[in-house]
Amino acid sequence: MDILRRCLLTVAATGFLVLPLAQAQERSITVASTTSTEQSGLFAYLLPAFKKATGINVKVVAVGTGQALDIGRRGDADVVFVHDKVAEEKFVSEGFAPKRQEVMYNDFVLIGPKTDPAKASGKDILDGLKKVAEAKAPFISRGDKSGTHAAELRYWRDAGVEPNGDWYKEIGQGMGPALNTASAQNAYVLSDRGTWLSFKNRGELAILVEGDQKLFNQYGVMLVNPVKHAHVKAEDGQTFINWLVSPEGQRTIADYKIGGDQLFFPNARPERS
């Protein structure tokens, strides 16, 4: 019995040693990204393919672009994957990322009631927003310093309109909640096309303005600078970036569709040697 007891204790001790070792060997990174990449379903489609290719787990923190960049500045993420080129270039110039790489694009669209009481429909986003403001038609703004919010504010400025008053409501939330609010209130809202295509609770809403070159929506990815934050998992983070811009990653992005509609269009540029 003593021999048997010693054997069982040895096996148990070995098991306790193996478990932490296996856990220590599991590779993972944190990616701060936008609500549009998360709520459109892209990550749910993309990340299993990445893990299969590399064995690396990815935890996504989905917030507005401004918040995602702030997470990167604090060193609380290994990679930032967002869509506000001006803010991204500032992030690089401040030294928080060694460089920025383009990954994919889609476009913004102006959503509104099918009856279009403001007569905003067409292919000119500035004209459409002017008509919404003139009609004082209900408009839902994300108001969350996201890439979509930054684009919306840029369009209002270029249209010569300072949105304010009871008709303009900032909710401080992501794209999904903004679309839900617009649906409930039969209001206008600017959305990225990917989240709109994946959105189910449309009610009486429809796309009213699309096709304007100003609505182009580029996504970029950056490794958080390990010189700024030594704990950043630079090797695995760069592996994720390399995969995104590789033929396999770009093909996977292109293959993600809802109802036959492609949500994102890969456009990574090969790096010059």
TrEMBL record:
Keywords: Plasmid, Signal. This is Extracellular solute-binding protein. Residues 1-24 form the signal peptide. The lineage of its organism: Bacteria, Pseudomonadati, Pseudomonadota, Alphaproteobacteria, Hyphomicrobiales. It comes from Microvirga terrae. The keyword Signal applies. Residues 24-248 form the PBP domain. InterPro entries: ABC-Tungstate_binding, PBP_domain.
